[in-house]
């Protein structure tokens, strides 16, 4: 039986060697009926070369070689063959689905993935180093490139993915912002941590130098002088990371992982936005804030509601000495998200500031309450406007509508509708009691306080009707006490008014009285949860109304709630209740007032940050009242040094003692750290003394431990100065003062000078990334400012002016150097323009720009080539100094002159010789051009020789175009080679099969050497081209075994020389018995039907698997005839001949091929006749070995059907097979069917159960019908 090349190599120990039989083409192969069905090595570049066929089988070819002149570029190269990567198998061999069980899929943005040679080289490197199978596809809709990887183990899979991400990601530079205090953690001991990150990611990481870092002094916790409740505002430092995008992201993640405890969470306050903009930022009912929180996830945003910020602003206006309260917007959460939210809110504020307009309108005060709450949210939601109402204390009724211009009128309409859509009735309490003869206003105020205490008005209110008592501030400003009743139902409002009027009339002045009781005793009289006062009210038939604690009023109102209507009885009851309440007050506490004289500068220590110390002194029960400073004296002459404490005696004594101790401690601390020095500083020097972001002054504070503050002050001469105050230990203060004075003297020496330098040469003076300018700044201690474009791209007003700022000597030195360099650059910036023939441009540029770049490097000139040549001429511009321009021009003209005048010629070459002349991958054609004195570069060889395309009328005419002498030499050489091809013959030489291995040699070395020495081409039985090279022309004995016939192709002399060597046989010594499978071992027979013989015998791994199980298998001989699977009808399987310059067939219909499914194992041995297969081995291993054979038999039985697919173009076979067999292996794994692709014809054989056979066929057709995206050679 005949063997394939792969089987021959395996039998003779030549696995992994390059194919010794160069491909000839794809002519139909005669079917001998006994071709092996073993699967080819799908990853072998030799087993699946670029496919294509001519119209007729190639005949009489001296140097056969496969053509790569196909429609698309082939990734298969047979000129150099390497052993297949181990692929995790531990040996050379083709990767299979079983050997690569681990897989992974990931995607990268197509724009960030390198292409071209970088892509192919990276994937090849991955496959060589890891043995992984890598496939990729680009999704145009999503803009992603997806990679599919299969590897032998998880480690190789992970490494392959990392290599792809690192190798294909385009280089980027990113910045990572980190707190300055974390730099030590990132760098690590002696840089070990940083080195570990750079080694693992292969990124370049730049950390700013220490002398460029801002000074930073962390705030101490619980510092009594620190009244800022915000987090420590630590400076941020940018770390630069450069490298592939995926590696940069990995490095950033590692850096942030090291300092996650410091940067994972952050908070920020926005203080520059006026509170009037808060409703716009928060949105109706906080909707915009919630949207931001949902959008950024782990972020909490707090925008103070109007009630809060208005109250705090009012408090600040009334009491300038009060501790300032923070009403800023607060954001807390993930650091990056916090920064994003802050930036978004700031942009929103900027836009609002530009669009904001306002409209004022007068609306009665009583209707203002209808424009708040849900109504205000509705107005904001519909019109993007807000309505600002005057405070209740303000007598004004003017309302302000604020928002975008387009929303003001709609907002005004809604405001008027809402203000007027409800009915309003009022009850004037003062008027109802004015006839009583007493102070009606005072009585009315007491009644309102009673209503609020007893919630009488709320009880009268019904559904749809609301009753509002007047605000205390409104009563004070207007002198009226008016109760408002509002609602949409006028009848219900009128009814409620009547009920309120009756309620007010039921409380005449005789039923109400007041008692003066110290406000500090009120809490003692009320008792816990009001228990004591409730008991008193029940016993006395009265209701007690205490003033609010914030009023510090001593007036307590008693309202008679008994059943008697007699005025005298009511008065008597109230007198008794007043006396009883006063008696309770006297027994409740022993009150006293103490006053301390404490210097004003110690008041801060008594109050503490945010009033914390004062709150601790007063205690949770707030039984004492402490007034500090001017508040402590109620007289007109306020004494700012007075501290007043009032309350129960014991509590007052305690507080007085603690205040004295606090003051004493503050004085002691001031003696140690309170030394103060002051000096006046010119205001223009302050920014330099403070530094960017306070870096300079913070460094001084950190180094010497002092406090340095600058305050604006106007001296007597009217000159603007700044008072600098330094506080701390005496020695440190004096040193700080000395350093500041020295810095001021240095600044006094500073000067500024402007020089004129043309903008065109400024980039050369600045240098790449500013390196030249930075070098000058560091050398002379100056600051250079070159003109820049604005953010919107507008050019600077003075583009030629360069500003130098610094010490006088440094400025003068930098000026001299810049002017000298500018003069040199001006001299060096010459230009010259000339033309060359357009046909010479390709040679001047060179492959990948090699020639033109070499000229640039050697001459030092800059060269620009005009892409739009006209009239056969192309313009070239050279820039640089005169010498460089002259050298560049001479070099370019030298290359241009070497390109002679073109000519063209034609030569007739029979089509059957085209493949042989072109050679594998066009190599023979390239070698021919070089041998004739032509260029070696492939791009320069293009177009010199053009073979006819498939479908041309004249298929024998070859066109030549190029320099006249070269064309003549190529034509002569082609005619010579055609003559040699016509003299080529094919003869058969009988070489016993056992001599084939010695003639081929390890790795095909002996065969290749013989072919070189003889000049003939030799094909052994089983090679891919053996059947396609044609029939032998000499006669051989009839009894000669076909497996012994070796075909030799060449001239008579070459064939004779090769035959002489082939007919020299080498006798091998017989092998000694190794004891393998000796009779003393146990054996077991397994009867197997003959029809499964070849299904088992052709399994290449069966013997190895049985040996691995500890047994040995003897394949029974002789073998029964092997069934042959031939399609019943032969379709037109000849693939279209593909050429280098052939365009794809436009409008071609999808290939369907011819498909036939038949039952398997129905040919060959008839019936159920069996044959014994013997397995030998040790007793303990025999069962396992027999089980392996039985499993193989079961697999053969399961393959019940065989499918024959023909008629597909062979140009599609490489796509079916895939790179190194990846596609066909995946098809086998996915469908469970065995797929064999014909080597010499278009037959694809699929074996398995009926379902898997049809599934595999559909998958193959889907691949064939998919358009190919390759480019022509």
Can you tell me about this structure?
The N terminus and C terminus are likely disordered. This protein is elongated. β29 and β30 form a beta hairpin. It is α+β, with helices and mostly antiparallel strands. 29% of the residues are buried. The strands form 14 sheets. It has a 4-stranded antiparallel sheet, with helices on one face. α12 runs antiparallel to α13, α42 runs antiparallel to α43 and α45 runs antiparallel to α46. The protein is built from 46 helices and 43 strands.
Short description, anyone?
This protein has 1273 residues and is an alpha+beta fold. Residues 207-222, 1155-1164 have a biased composition (Basic and acidic residues).
Number of helices: 46
How would the global form be characterised? elongated
Low-confidence stretches: 1-6, 12-93, 220-230, 315-324, 1067-1079, 1130-1148, 1269-1273
Percent of residues in beta strands? 15-25%
Which bin fits the share of residues in helices? 25-40%
* Mean pLDDT reading: 77
Largest sheet: 4 strands, antiparallel
Q: Give the terminus-to-terminus CA distance.
A: 40 Å
Q: What integer value in Å does the Rg equal?
A: 50 Å
The structure class reads alpha+beta
Strand order of the largest sheet: 39-41-43-42
Count the E strands: 43
């Amino acid at each position: 039986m005949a063997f394939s090349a792969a089987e021959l190599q395996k039998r003779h120990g030549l696995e992994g060697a390059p194919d010794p039989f160069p491909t000839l083409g794809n002519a139909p192969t005669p079917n001998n009926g006994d071709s092996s069905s073993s699967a080819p090595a799908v990853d072998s570049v030799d087993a699946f070369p670029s496919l294509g066929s001519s119209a007729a089988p190639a005949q009489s070819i001296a140097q056969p070689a496969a053509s790569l002149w196909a429609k698309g570029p082939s990734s298969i190269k047979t000129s150099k063959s390497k052993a297949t990567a181990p692929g995790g198998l531990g040996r050379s061999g083709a990767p299979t689905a079983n050997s690569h069980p681990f897989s992974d899929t990931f995607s990268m943005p197509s724009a960030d993935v390198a292409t071209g040679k970088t892509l192919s080289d990276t994937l090849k490197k991955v496959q060589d180093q890891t043995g992984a199978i890598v496939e990729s596809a680009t999704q145009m809709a999503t803009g992603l490139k997806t990679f599919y990887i299969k590897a032998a183990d998880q480690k190789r899979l992970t490494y392959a993915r990392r290599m792809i991400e690192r190798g294909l990601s385009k280089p980027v530079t990113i910045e990572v912002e980190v707190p300055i205090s974390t730099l030590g953690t990132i760098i690590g001991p002696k840089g070990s941590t940083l080195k570990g990150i750079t080694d693992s990611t292969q990124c370049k990481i730049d950390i700013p130098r220490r002398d460029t870092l801002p000074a930073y002094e962390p705030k101490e916790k619980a510092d009594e002088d620190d009244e800022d409740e915000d987090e420590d505002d630590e400076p941020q430092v940018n770390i630069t990371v450069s490298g592939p995008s995926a590696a940069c992201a990995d490095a950033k993640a590692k850096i942030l992982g090291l300092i996650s405890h410091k940067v994972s969470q952050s908070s920020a306050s926005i203080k520059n936005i006026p509170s009037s903009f808060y409703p716009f930022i928060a949105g109706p009912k906080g909707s915009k804030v919630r949207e931001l929180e949902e959008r950024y996830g782990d972020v909490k945003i707090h925008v103070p509601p109007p009630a809060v910020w208005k109250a705090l602003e009012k408090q600040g206006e009334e009491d300038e000495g009060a501790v300032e309260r923070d009403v800023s917007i607060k954001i807390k959460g993930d650091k990056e998200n916090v920064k994003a939210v802050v930036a978004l809110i700031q942009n929103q504020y900027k836009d609002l500031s530009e669009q904001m307009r306002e409209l004022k309108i007068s609306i009665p005060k009583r209707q203002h309450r209808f424009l708040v709450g849900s109504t205000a949210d509705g107005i904001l939601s519909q019109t993007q406007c807000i309505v600002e109402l005057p405070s209740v204390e303000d007598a004004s009724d003017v309302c302000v509508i604020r928002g975008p211009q387009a929303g003001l009128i709609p907002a005004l309409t809604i405001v008027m509708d809402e203000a007027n859509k409800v009915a309003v009735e009022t009850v004037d309490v003062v008027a109802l009691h004015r006839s009583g003869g007493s102070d009606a206003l005072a009585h009315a105020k007491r009644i309102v306080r009673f209503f609020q205490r007893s919630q009488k008005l709320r009880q009268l209110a019904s559904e749809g009707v609301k009753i509002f008592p007047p605000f205390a501030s409104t009563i004070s400003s207007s002198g009226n006490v008016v109760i408002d009743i509002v609602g949409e139902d006028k009848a219900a409002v009128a009814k409620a008014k009547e009920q309120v009027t009756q309620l007010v009339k039921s409380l005449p002045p005789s039923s109400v009285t007041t008692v003066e009781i110290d406000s500090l005793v009120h809490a003692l009289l009320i008792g816990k949860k009001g228990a004591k006062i409730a008991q008193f009210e029940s016993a006395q038939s009265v209701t007690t109304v205490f003033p609010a604690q914030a009023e510090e009023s001593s007036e307590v109102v008693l309202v008679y709630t008994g059943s008697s209507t007699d005025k005298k009885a009511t008065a008597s009851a109230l007198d008794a209740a007043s006396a009883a309440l006063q008696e309770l007050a006297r027994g409740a506490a022993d009150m006293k007032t103490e006053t301390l004289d404490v210097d004003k500068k110690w008041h801060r220590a008594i109050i503490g940050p945010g009033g914390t110390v004062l709150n601790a002194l007063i205690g949770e029960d707030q039984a004492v009242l402490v007034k500090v400073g001017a508040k402590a004296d109620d007289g007109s002459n306020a004494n700012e040094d007075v501290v007043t404490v009032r309350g129960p005696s014991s509590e007052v004594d305690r507080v007085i003692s603690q205040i004295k101790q606090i003051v004493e401690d503050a004085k002691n601390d001031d003696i140690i750290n309170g030394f103060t020095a002051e000096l006046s500083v010119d205001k223009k020097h302050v920014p330099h003394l403070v530094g960017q972001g306070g870096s300079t002054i913070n460094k001084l504070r950190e180094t010497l431990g002092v406090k340095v503050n600058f305050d604006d002050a106007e001296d007597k001469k009217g000159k603007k100065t700044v008072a600098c105050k330094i506080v701390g230990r005496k020695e440190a203060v004096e040193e700080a003062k000395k350093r500041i004075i020295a810095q001021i003297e240095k600044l006094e020496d500073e000067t500024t000078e402007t020089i004129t330098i043309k903008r065109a040469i400024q980039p050369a003076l600045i240098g790449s990334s500013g390196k030249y300018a930075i070098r000058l700044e560091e050398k002379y201690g100056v600051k250079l400012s070159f003109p820049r474009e604005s953010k919107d791209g507008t050019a600077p007003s003075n583009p030629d002016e360069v500003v130098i700022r610094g010490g006088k000597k440094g400025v003068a030195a930098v000026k001299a150097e810049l002017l000298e360099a500018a003069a040199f650059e001006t001299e060096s910036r010459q230009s010259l323009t000339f033309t060359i023939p357009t046909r010479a441009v390709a040679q001047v540029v060179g492959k990948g720009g090699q020639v033109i770049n070499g000229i640039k490097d050697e001459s030092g000139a800059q060269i620009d080539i005009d892409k739009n040549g006209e009239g056969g001429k192309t313009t070239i511009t050279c820039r640089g100094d005169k010498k460089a321009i002259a050298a560049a021009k001479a070099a370019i003209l030298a290359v241009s002159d070497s390109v002679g005048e073109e000519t063209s010629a034609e030569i007739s070459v029979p089509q059957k010789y085209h493949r042989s002349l072109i050679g594998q991958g066009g190599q023979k054609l390239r070698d021919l051009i070089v041998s004739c004195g032509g260029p070696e570069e492939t791009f320069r060889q293009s177009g010199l020789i053009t073979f006819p395309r498939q479908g041309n009328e004249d298929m024998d005419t070859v066109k030549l175009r190029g320099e006249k002498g070269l064309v003549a030499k190529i034509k002569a050489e082609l005619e010579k080679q055609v003559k040699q091809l016509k003299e080529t013959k094919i003869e058969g030489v009988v070489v016993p099969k056992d001599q084939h291995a010695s003639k081929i040699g390890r790795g095909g070395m002996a065969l290749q050497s013989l072919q070189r020495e003889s000049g003939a081409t030799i094909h052994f039985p089983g090679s891919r081209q053996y059947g396609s090279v044609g029939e032998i022309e000499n006669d051989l004995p009839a009894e000669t075994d076909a497996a012994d016939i070796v075909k030799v192709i060449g001239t008579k002399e070459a064939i004779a020389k090769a035959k002489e060597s082939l007919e020299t046989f080498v006798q091998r010594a017989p092998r000694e018995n190794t004891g393998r499978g000796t009779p003393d071992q146990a054996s077991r027979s397994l009867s197997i039907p003959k029809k499964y013989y070849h299904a088992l015998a052709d399994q290449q791994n069966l013997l190895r698997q049985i040996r691995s199980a500890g047994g040995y298998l003897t394949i029974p001989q002789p073998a029964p005839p092997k069934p042959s699977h031939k399609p019943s009808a032969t379709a037109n399987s000849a693939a279209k001949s593909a050429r280098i310059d052939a365009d794809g067939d436009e409008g071609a219909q999808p290939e369907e091929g011819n498909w036939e499914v038949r039952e398997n194992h129905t040919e060959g041995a008839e019936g159920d006749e069996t044959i014994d297969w013997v397995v030998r081995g040790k007793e303990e291993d025999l069962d396992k070995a027999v089980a392996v054979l039985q499993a193989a038999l079961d697999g053969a039985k399961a393959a019940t059907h065989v499918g024959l697919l023909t008629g597909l173009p062979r140009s599609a076979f490489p796509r079916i097979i895939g790179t190194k067999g990846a596609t066909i292996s995946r098809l086998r794994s996915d469908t469970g069917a065995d797929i064999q692709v014909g080597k010499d014809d278009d037959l694809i054989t699929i074996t398995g159960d009926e379902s898997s056979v049809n599934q595999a066929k559909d998958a193959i057709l889907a691949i064939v019908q998919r358009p190919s995206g390759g480019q022509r050679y």
